[in-house]
């Protein structure tokens, strides 16, 4: 989303430039007509001839006002129809729009009254000068104002304003200057409008707009997490939302009470929008699905950083929901990306010392890898194996107490899959286990390597020999096709390649 906006200050520059050019040109022509020392224009404007010329000003001014309102109304209506009806509300509340429209209206009224004032001598010079000044300002402001309106209605600009509106409500609520019902209503509308923009943009395949809306939703969630401790207790009451909000009206009363006690209704609202967009983007815009997973992971990390365990648990449940939805839709690439984000969440949890989150991430990688295998998507079990193996490595490097439990789940990853026909996937899981065994040997942890070797002894010797040959033949770290990860699962660094012989000797 672009951070550069065509605001009131930027609009003032072309206004001043047009004013300067008009004054220079008019001054030069005035001097040509009246000599080097021409009379002041306001003296001439009070003459009867000049006053008669003002009789057409009202018609011109009203015509300019009509054209402006017509153009602006059409553009606003088109933008509201395509993106969100919230645009109209934002437009009429914007101070620049109100000021410029007020200038046009005041100019029309003053010029009209000025015509009625030119009925006899002495002609009102001040009135004539004021009418000319207002009409000049209105005409000079016309082009900069159109530029401002078009920028105001740009899709990313609208998204940023909706997000800022939600953030202002949270800030005002935490400062005690906004009542809870009004702030809650504005924040809910902001979240819903951002979700609507993302959903509508999926239909139009407008990826840029979808990404901007998803980023804005994440920012609202992060702002809510950051300000949660300073918000009043009434803010977290979910009961008012159940009566009017489509995302809460069907919830079980126990869940409504849980959301209130855990203070997580805002996170639920944002993640509901992500869930809806995720379902619409399956098999259509996989990059959008991946970005939703990234934003969801960031919200979970922010929850951990703020010590909000309830919010972190809720976010992980939505990640599980994404996984189940993608597996049911047989969208392999989306599940592949989701596993990657889940693994990154686990690594970040290890850095933050959140052992319980790490164990949950590992458990869900195992569960959904096996669910995908049962759904005849065998490659995903192999993906889960490599991601879980990476979590084991990180836990070992950090001396995390969760290491032994992670290793145990890693070795059980293919247990429920035994006897199935997806031979290639089971070979991939075994390769991941062999890879981790060599990694242990390069770190001098022979005890952990022996656990893997013991698990491999039940494997067919011919298959193990074939797996070893295949691993030795992979010499490039980067995958030979374009992928989001860009890594070749089966590649072994030189030290681990040298440790293959030692590991297979331990297997016997």
Summarize this, please?
The chain has 24 helices and no strands.
Blueprint of the fold:
Blueprint: H1 8-34, H2 41-45, H3 48-53, H4 57-82, H5 86-93, H6 95-117, H7 125-152, H8 155-174, H9 180-204, H10 207-227, H11 239-244, H12 253-262, H13 265-281, H14 286-305, H15 309-328, H16 332-351, H17 355-374, H18 378-398, H19 403-411, H20 423-442, H21 446-456, H22 461-473, H23 494-498, H24 500-507
Helix pairs in contact: 1-7, 4-5, 4-6, 4-7, 6-7, 8-9, 8-10, 9-10, 9-13, 10-13, 10-14, 13-14, 13-15, 14-15, 14-16, 15-16, 15-17, 16-17, 16-18, 17-18, 17-19, 18-19, 18-20, 20-21, 21-24
Distance between the termini: 58 Å
What characteristic shape results from the CA principal axes? elongated
Number of helices: 24
Question: What value does the average pLDDT take?
Answer: 82
The poorly predicted ranges are: none
Order of helices and strands: HHHHHHHHHHHHHHHHHHHHHHHH
| Number of E strands | 0
Helix content: over 70%
Helix-strand category: mainly alpha
Report the β-strand fraction as a percent range: under 5%
Q: Radius of gyration from the CA trace?
A: 33 Å
Largest beta-sheet details: none
């Amino acid at each position: 989303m672009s951070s550069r906006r065509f605001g009131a200050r930027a609009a003032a520059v072309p206004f001043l430039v047009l004013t300067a050019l008009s004054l220079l040109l008019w001054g030069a022509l005035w001097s040509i007509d009246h000599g080097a020392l021409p009379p002041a224009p306001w003296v001439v404007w009070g003459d009867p001839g000049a006053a008669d010329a003002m009789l057409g000003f009202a018609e011109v001014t009203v015509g300019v006002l009509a054209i402006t309102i017509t153009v602006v109304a059409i553009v606003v209506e088109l933008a509201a129809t395509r993106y969100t009806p919230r645009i109209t509300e934002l437009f009429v509340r914007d101070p620049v729009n109100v000021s410029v429209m007020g200038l046009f209206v005041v100019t029309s009224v003053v010029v009209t009254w000025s015509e009625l004032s030119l009925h006899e001598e002495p002609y009102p010079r001040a009135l004539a000068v004021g009418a000319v000044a207002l009409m000049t300002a209105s005409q000079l402001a016309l082009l900069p104002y159109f530029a401002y309106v078009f920028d105001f209605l740009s899709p990313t600009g609208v998204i940023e304003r909706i997000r800022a509106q939600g953030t202002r409500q949270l800030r005002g609520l935490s400062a005690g200057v906004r009542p809870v019902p009004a702030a809650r209503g504005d924040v809910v509308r902001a979240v819903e409008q951002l979700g609507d923009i993302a959903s509508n943009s999926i239909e139009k395949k407008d990826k840029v707009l979808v990404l901007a809306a998803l980023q804005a939703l994440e920012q609202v969630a992060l702002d809510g997490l950051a300000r949660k401790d300073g918000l009043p207790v009434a803010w977290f009451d979910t009961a008012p939302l159940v009566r009017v909000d489509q995302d809460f009206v069907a919830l079980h009363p126990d869940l409504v009470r849980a959301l209130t006690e855990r203070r997580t209704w805002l996170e639920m609202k944002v993640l509901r929008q992500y869930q809806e967009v995720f379902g619409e983007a399956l098999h259509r815009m996989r990059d959008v699905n991946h970005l939703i997973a990234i934003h969801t992971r960031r919200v979970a990390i922010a929850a951990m950083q703020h010590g909000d365990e309830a919010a972190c648990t809720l976010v992980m449940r939505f990640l599980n929901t994404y996984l189940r939805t993608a597996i049911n839709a047989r969208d392999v690439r989306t599940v592949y990306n989701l596993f990657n984000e889940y693994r990154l969440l686990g690594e970040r949890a290890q850095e933050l010392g959140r052992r319980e989150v790490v164990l949950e991430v590992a458990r869900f990688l195992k569960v959904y890898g096996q669910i995908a295998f049962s759904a005849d998507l065998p490659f995903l079990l192999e993906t889960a194996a490599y991601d879980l193996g990476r979590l084991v490595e990180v836990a070992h490097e950090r001396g995390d107490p969760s290491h032994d439990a992670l290793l145990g789940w890693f070795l059980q990853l293919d247990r429920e899959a035994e006897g199935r026909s997806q031979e290639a996937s089971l070979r991939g899981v075994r390769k991941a286990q062999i890879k981790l065994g060599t990694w242990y040997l390069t770190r001098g942890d022979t005890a952990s390597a022996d656990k893997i070797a013991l698990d491999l002894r039940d494997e067919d010797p011919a298959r193990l020999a074939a797996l070893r040959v295949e691993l030795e033949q992979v010499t490039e770290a980067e995958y030979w096709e374009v992928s989001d990860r860009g890594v070749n699962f089966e590649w072994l660094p030189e030290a681990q390649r040298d440790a293959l012989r030692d590991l297979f000797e331990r297997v016997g």
